[in-house]
Input
Amino acid sequence: MKILLDHDGLVLYQESYFNATLEEITKDITWRNDTITMFGKTYPQPRLTAWHGDLDLAYSYSKIKMISPGWTPKLFEIKNRLEIDLKTKFNSVLVNYYRNGLDHMSYHSDNEKELGTNPIIASLSFGEKRKFLLKHRFEKSLAPLQFELSSQSLLVMKGELQHFWVHKIAKSTKIKDPRLNLTFRFIHN
Output
């Protein structure tokens, strides 16, 4: 795996990690389009989401609570391979479906208390390439870092990254095709 960042956390990247199509992965998924409140206003999330993992496992972020219906066969297959390759345990995956370039994710960190200290997040991308940006929370003189995530690629975030950095998937009016992102994690209840 290639090291993309090793300052205040670690980001690793591998192209062509898992060979599958969007259709293969999404065929057993039921999508949600929850609302999110930002700056006192409520909006539909700018993407579709789903939550899978160990049966009845709960996860909350931005006042949205999700309860796992269990694993789909394809998500379970990917989880097992990740656990072997990364030598870590995952019990859940947040699935984000970006319908086109207008669907996005604003700057955030995966720092919910259920993830514990210094979580390992394994993020797989399928479909359209999208730009992934990282911005340091405290060192304002550092310019944001930008990487293009290709289809079937794996991005791993670990160490203190979620404390020191925020990340996002930016909007783009040029992108017309969908992107699927799977973020595997371990929830501590």
Summary: The chain has a mean pLDDT of 93. The radius of gyration is 16 Å.
